[in-house]
Amino acid sequence: QVQLVESGGGLVQAGGSLRLSCAASGSFFRINDMGWYRQAPGKQRELVAAITSGGITNYADSVKGRFTISRDNAKNTVYLQMNSLKAEDTAVYYCNVDLTLNTRWGKSNYAYWGQGTQVTVSS
Q1: What is the pLDDT of residues 31-80, one digit of tens each?
Q2: What is the C-alpha separation between 7 and 68, in angstroms, rounded?
Q3: How far, in Å, CA of 32 to CA of 22, rounded?
Q4: Contact partners, residue 67, CB within 8 Å, separation at least 6
Q5: Are 85 and 76 contacting, i.e. CB atoms less than 8 angstroms apart?
Q6: Rounded to an integer, what is the distance from CA 118 to the centroid of its chain?
Q7: For 98, which of 32, 51, 117, 119 could close a Cys bridge (C-beta 3.0–4.6 Å)?
Q8: Dihedral over Cα of 94, 60, 122, 90: its sign
Q9: Is 123 exposed, middle or buried (CB count within 10 Å of its CB: 0-12, 13-18, 19+)?
Q10: At residue 103, does pLDDT exceed 90?
Q11: Nearest 5°: phi and psi at 114?
């Protein structure tokens, strides 16, 4: 059983900062790519930032220079540091983690989603 637990969302004024965390627990062989997505009301879910197991990062153009994704492999945790927040950053943020599991048929990769955490930026 694999579980992703997110924390760190909340209400902040424009220009402020928040730090999101997502910790993976359970039985798995390896954590591969980790990332953060967001979904605003009436909009599709979009990729915000991602980080590979080797530490290579990728960001949406809208957050470059303001958000930083990082991971602590010892804690099975991915972080999203969000600075200079804008009203348009308001959304539910979801972590997404690609895991390699040991199954009866061998190793297989599966993607898991966190439960989502609300980020609201007031202007």
Answers
A1: 999 999 999 999 999 999 999 999 999 999 999 999 999 999 999 999 99
A2: 16
A3: 14
A4: 48, 49, 59, 80, 81, 82, 83
A5: no
A6: 12
A7: 32
A8: negative
A9: exposed
A10: no
A11: -75, 175
Backbone dihedral angles phi then psi of residue 87, each to the nearest 5 degrees = -60, -35
What distance in Å separates the CA atoms of residue 62 and residue 2, rounded to the nearest whole number?
Answer: 31
Query: What gap in Å lies between CA 89 and CA 25, rounded to an integer?
Result: 28
Nearest Cα neighbor of 77 from 1, 6, 9, 29 is 6
Distance of alpha carbon 28 from alpha carbon 102, whole angstroms = 7
Give the amino acid at 114: G
SS3 28: coil
Phi-psi region of 65 (alpha: psi -120 to 50; beta: other; left: phi over 0): left
Give the closest residue to 116 by CA, choosing from 91, 84, 90, 97: 91
Cα gap 36→79, rounded to integer Å = 9
Structure tokens at 79: 């972080």
Starting from the edge strand earliest in sequence, which strands make up the sheet with 18-26, in order? 2-7, 18-26, 77-82, 67-72
